[in-house]
Amino acid sequence: MKSKPDAIFVTNLDMVLGSVLLLKEKGIKIPYEIGFIGFDDSEWALLLDPALTVVQQPVYQLGETAAEILIKKINGNEETKNILVHVLNTHLIIRQSSVKNNN
Length: 103
Description:
Layout: E1 7-10, H1 13-25, E2 35-39, E3 53-56, H2 59-74, E4 91-93
Parallel strand pairs: 1-2, 2-3
Antiparallel strand pairs: 3-4
């Protein structure tokens, strides 16, 4: 590309691994040449070199909330009748893969 992006944001763990492997295969150094951020956190994100910056989603809370809404809907609870979107907070965990370093 004539104009390379400053960073890549990848939205699932399988694509994160494939993207990191491809960048390494092409000799593109993270974060020196491009920043890298993944969506969702995993224990192996710390094992990558460099450690992966991630947007961490509240996986347990996501499942718990979905189950609560489903049970309420099954039981005919009126308060769930119009739920189209339920927002849960995510957290950005900054690690080495997104830290600009000119070395």
